[in-house]
Amino acid sequence: MAKSSGINPELLLSQKLPEKTFTYTERDAAIYALGVGACGRDAVDADELKYVYHENGQQFIQVLPTFSALFSFELEPSGAIDLPGLQHDPRLLLHGQQYMELYKPFPSSASIRNEACIAGLHDKGKAAILEIETKSYNAESGELLCMNRMTAFLRGAGGFSNSSQPFSYSKYQTIPVSVVKIPKSQPFAVFEDYTQPSQALVYRLSGDYNPLHSDPMVAKAAGFSRPILHGLCTMGFAVRAIIKFICRGDPNMVKNIFSRFLLHVYPGETLVTEMWLQGLRVIYQVKVKERNRSVLSGFVDVHRLASSL
Ligand SMILES: CCCCCCCCCCCCC/C=C/C(=O)SCCNC(=O)CCNC(=O)[C@H](O)C(C)(C)COP(=O)(O)OP(=O)(O)OC[C@H]1O[C@@H](n2cnc3c(N)ncnc32)[C@H](O)[C@@H]1OP(=O)(O)O
């Protein structure tokens, strides 16, 4: 017998997500970089100033690879997921994981065409997990720039399976829903960085306007004492640290990124990113110093290792 949940898997999985074309400018790329803490400790840091300023003009600034995680939000800037067959309480929605493949460096400005689809749906009993995959093309050249797979963790929306076997659908098998094993050895590098109390208010200007990150009442209804930081903002801090320490400042060395959000972060907390090298894979973990808790773990695959490592 069907359990009492608002998810109708057949109806939901039959949905086609609309194609979307949009444009970003150098200003968007720079505001994003500031939102994930670039130059936050040192306004003239040579590794990071290039994301916000170039002496020959803004068209020469570089774009962080994590910028492209925002492309999916062009589908719905409120971060709400309103689809037939997906009845859930939007206040209980959390970002669970993000996986991205980067095929080309991003221009400082571009027109992007997004093709998105529902890539997964899983019944975890107390929660439902929905995966949305977005392929982003340069609208002018037609080149595929990147793929983003976003996992939404819908608390309270599980229990929709019809049989004793929990419902689990995955369109692609390339990345399982899993945690990364953190090595027991000393990390190769550790970087401590500070988020500002206003970090989420700045980050949201990049296009992720979910009020969970700005509205105290919405945050309370979701079970938090105050607005929390966007998971993608924490991820941006972590990958920025990896680019600095492992890629020696070259953002184009990043190939794939996987992040699993383990616990919420409050703006103003200190993020400690630990990095381990395993061949061309960097395993990483982010801890909040004040609470000594792991909030994020994952990996970053790089194209090659910097010769100075
Ligand atoms: C029309 C299309 C629109 C598209 C629009 C795109 C917009 C995209 C919106 C998505 C963003 C939503 C808005 C929110 C944004 C945020 O940034 S929220 C902040 C960042 N996220 C967090 O802070 C979450 C931190 N994590 C946690 O709090 C916890 O890990 C959890 C998610 C609440 C889970 O904890 P818990 O309930 O204790 O789970 P478990 O009992 O450990 O596990 C149960 C099963 O679920 C699997 N699982 C656990 N955690 C995750 C995870 N993070 N991601 C994916 N799956 C997870 C776990 O493996 C268990 O499964 P089984 O092993 O099979 O039992």
Would you write up a description of this structure?
The chain has helices spanning 9-13, 26-35, 199-203, 216-221, 231-245; strands at residues 20-24, 93-102, 110-123, 127-138, 144-155, 168-170, 189-194, 254-261, 270-278, 281-288, 293-302. With 309 residues, the protein is α+β, with helices and mostly antiparallel strands. It has a single domain (9-170, 178-302), classed as Hotdog Thioesterase (Thiol Ester Dehydrase, Chain A, Roll), CATH 3.10.129. The chain starts with 8 loop residues before the first helix and ends in a 7-residue tail after the last strand. The model has no long low-confidence stretch (mean pLDDT 94). Bound molecules: ligand LEDWP2DD. One of its GO terms (cellular component) is peroxisome. InterPro entries: HotDog_dom_sf (IPR029069), MaoC-like_dom (IPR002539), MFE-2_N (IPR054357). Residues 22-156 form the Peroxisomal multifunctional enzyme type 2-like N-terminal domain.
Key features of this structure:
Thiol Ester Dehydrase, Chain A; 13% helix; binds ligand LEDWP2DD; 309 residues; 31% strand; 11-stranded antiparallel sheet; alpha+beta; 5 helices; globular
